[in-house]
Backbone:
């Protein structure tokens, strides 16, 4: 279980403000929002790389700040920062940094390296961006953390490995004990693997919940603009084009004008229209 209460972090001209959510163990949470929304800042807080300026956090009832070293043992990081020694081999890097984790296993690392088609004899600086992220993933899994924190890794994965990646996430959470937070701008990935979603906009939390409940709270409608405008404060954002208008609206459960086409939105539609129109 991961719990945040009113977590705040100020960085230069950016403020991550009052983040609140509870993610049960055993689930994948998609962390979504435009560039600069605060996704990476939040991942850095969850990993212990940043300390929050306000609020409280718990992982499995261990509170950040009070049990920091214990929590870091339980966090697996796949970030875009290069955190390994460029001139050392992958195996040397893993064994060196693995010595800081009580559950690190070289055998587990080797198994994932084979699965990811990584040559552990290579020096880290010889890897492509995608291979560096694969290695970070293999290393994180080698010490069996309770939570994986992933910062848009699939943008640098080829299509074939993406399927392997999604299979591993399902395997990792199958026990019901481990959780994943996946930051991504690819909404197709959220619809594909995420159980929960946290949507950030300009450092503020716009929505959090399980995907099915979120989808049930909204509807997309299409038709003549004036008919959509009659929905008034239910409309979050409307766009008009040559062939009519579309809008994201709050779903009340009440019948609507039969001349309007109505459907349950994808997460991509929800994010797009909320970014355009606000929460």
Residues:
């Amino acid at each position: 279980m991961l719990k945040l209460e009113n977590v705040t972090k100020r960085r230069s001209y950016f403020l991550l403000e009052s983040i609140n959510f509870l993610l049960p163990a055993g689930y994948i949470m998609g962390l979504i929002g435009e560039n600069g929304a605060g996704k990476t800042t939040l991942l850095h807080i969850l990993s212990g790389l940043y300390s929050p300026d306000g609020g409280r956090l718990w992982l499995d009832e261990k509170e950040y700040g009070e049990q920091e070293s214990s929590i870091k043992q339980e966090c697996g990081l796949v970030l875009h920062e290069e955190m390994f020694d460029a001139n050392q081999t992958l195996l040397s890097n893993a064994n060196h940094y693995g010595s800081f984790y009580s559950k690190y296993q070289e055998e587990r690392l080797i198994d994932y390296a084979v699965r990811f088609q990584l040559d552990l004899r290579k020096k880290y600086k010889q890897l492509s961006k995608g291979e560096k992220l694969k290695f970070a993933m293999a290393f994180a899994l080698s010490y069996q953390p309770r939570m994986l924190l992933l910062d848009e890794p699939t943008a640098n994965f080829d299509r074939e490995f993406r399927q392997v990646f999604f299979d591993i996430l399902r395997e990792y959470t199958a026990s019901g004990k481990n959780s994943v937070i996946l930051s991504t701008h690819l909404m197709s990935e959220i619809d594909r693997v995420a159980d929960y979603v946290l949507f950030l906009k300009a450092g503020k939390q716009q929505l959090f919940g399980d995907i099915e409940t979120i989808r049930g709270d909204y509807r997309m409608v299409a038709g003549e603009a004036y008919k959509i405008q009659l929905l008034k404060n239910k409309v979050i954002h409307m766009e008009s084009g040559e062939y009519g208008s579309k809008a994201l609206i709050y779903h009340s459960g009440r019948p609507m004008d039969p001349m309007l086409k109505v459907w349950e939105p994808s997460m991509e539609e929800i994010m797009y229209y909320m970014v355009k129109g606000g929460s």
About this structure: Residues 234 and 245 are 15 Å apart (CA to CA).
